[in-house]
Amino acid sequence: MAVSRDSYQTAFGSRFNEYLRLTDTSYSQAAERSGFTTTVICRWANGKAIPSVYTFARFCHAMKLDARSVMALLGLGGR
Known about the structure:
By secondary structure, this protein is mainly alpha-helical. The protein is built from five helices and no strands. It has helices at 5-22, 27-34, 38-45, 53-62, 67-73.
């Protein structure tokens, strides 16, 4: 059974929020460090949008994170 985009966005948002909580990072801190707007970070965290693979890689690079490790933490694969 295929997963709908809405349920994927919701799952990503929930896990992204959990990641921010675990790293004690606020939306504004994530935005400032990554160069994305607070609105974009909030949309990801609230399950209203999901980043493309390229955008997610840019976010991880800007935050000095290993994308595969973050994806694994988010339950999206990786190592």
